[in-house]
Amino acid sequence: MGLTLGALLLAAWATRTAYASCAHGTFLSPRAEDGTVEVGKFGYTGTIGPLNWAALDSPANGACATGTRQSPIDMVDGVFELLQGSDVELTVNDMPEGAEFENLGTTVEVITQGGSLKVGDKQFELQQFHFHLPSEHLDNGTSQAMEMHMVFQSEAQEIAVIGTYINIADTSAAAPSKRSRVFGRQEAKPPATGAVAATTLLETIFSVVDKIAVPGTKTTTPPLVMSEVVDVLKANAFQIYSGSLTTPPCSEGVSWHVSTARLGITPATFVKARDVIGFNARFPQNKPGEPNLLMVSALGSAAAAVAAIAGAGAGAAA
Ligand SMILES: [Zn+2]
Q: Does the keyword field hold Lyase (predicted)?
């Protein structure tokens, strides 16, 4: 029975390839075999926005409205288990010929060429990384300029994501040394402004983002050196929790690793990225294990409607 249900769910997921941009390239959302870039059918505003994702494809997207371990969330210091970057095995292959860079309509995504994350005895393979603007997770209640999601999948089809905040770089800072390109909160507290130097990888990727301004288009980035970001992630820590995809179908069981590191993007490059991405952050969800905010909201709305009707009745009677 359980197996049959599982198989049915897998089959259902496989047919909904345009719904899972956070999980694009994984078993939840395989790439089109002919290489075309499929544009997402959901969005971030109005009736295709996150308040209504469950209704866009019911019951497949049900977890978006009823799940109790949904992402993103507010990452409050001291609440989450910390995993030191030095305690995980993380590798991401450089891409000397550049990488495919796609506009999925709901995000812009770099298709990677090998990489892995090993946590304990679990091994995950890197599929892609993509960007959210502004950040989806909050750092102690504060959104950051952007957030990068590196999406990994295990052989058992479990998903792990590394989330890394991206701040606006302080362009008045001295030319960055390799070490100081990214600020690690654990090794040095950034100034109160959160100033950080630009990350070369991000500047390189977004130098061509204007070539994929139209959803459904793709281009090739200049050569990408991944060690810069990998070194920074390893030198910092991950706040870990079990959450969900932040896009439909909002599947749970996602192993989140939200880094304490900061990447940086220059103001001019941020504007270029913003002009293409627009806005693609799901609203912060309730604490893991607590009721889905949409359920809380539905009950509150129903109570308000009942009160309004009772009030109208009382008014008519009076
Ligand atoms: Zn994402």
A: yes
